[in-house]
């Protein structure tokens, strides 16, 4: 008995498949804006590095400097919750002896890392100068911030969206078309551009403490916002 194969051919029209649907005409534009804001907060990171012959002496000396920093924070009325002194490490210290051509043990290096969050920039100069006087080895340039940063960013974002629409309207006018609804929106932003690092004055030995503190000036932060918008074009 012979098998019978029945082939069925279906003719699908473009309309049935939806292929005939015309893709919308679109235009893609970018918009950007920025805003400036004066910082009112700072994060100060500092480190204490001590080299001593014995492990205990290295740890004790590093802890002594850390205690001075905590006392300084209390003196400046900085909440202990804003001061983190938990970063600590210890490692052996070796140097290469050229005579014996072998590493020579010299002792131990103890390091303490301290982070202070300031919400009063009037205390910044006193904190940095006091930390240096307390034998802190390194004070990194403060990272500035503002409690109003998010609100200012949203303002810049709205301005960027308005800039994108203005660009799209100008282009559609030049092309002789109308501007329709928004199809896609993508945002992009960058971290606030930090001001120049604070500079300590080492050249004026006769400068008083109050005048020294005045050399710490916070520059404005610049907050950027940008958007990419896809608009539909109409006849």
Could you characterize the architecture of this molecule?
This protein has helices at residues 14-17, 55-75, 124-133, 149-175, 209-213, and strands at 26-37, 41-52, 83-97, 102-118, 138-139, 143-145, 178-189, 221-234. The protein is elongated and about 85 Å long. The strands form two sheets. Strands 2, 3, 4, 5 and 6 form a five-stranded antiparallel sheet that branches. Strands 1-8-7 form a three-stranded antiparallel sheet. The termini are far apart. Mean pLDDT is 84; it is low at 5-13 and 195-209. It has five helices and eight strands; from the N terminus they run H-E-E-H-E-E-H-E-E-H-E-H-E. With 235 residues, it is an alpha+beta fold.
Relevant terms:
235 residues; alpha+beta; five-stranded antiparallel β-sheet; three-stranded antiparallel β-sheet; 5 helices; 29% helix; 37% strand
Q: What's the total number of strands? A: 8
Please count the helical segments: 5
Share of residues in strands: 35-45%
Share of residues in helices: 25-40%
Uncertain regions spanning at least 5 consecutive residues = 5-13, 195-209
Query: How can the largest sheet be summarized?
Result: 5 strands, antiparallel
Write down the secondary-structure element order: HEEHEEHEEHEHE
Q: What separation lies between the terminal Cα atoms?
A: 65 Å
Average pLDDT metric: 84
Query: Quick one: overall form?
Result: elongated
The value of Rg in angstroms is 32 Å
Structural class: alpha+beta
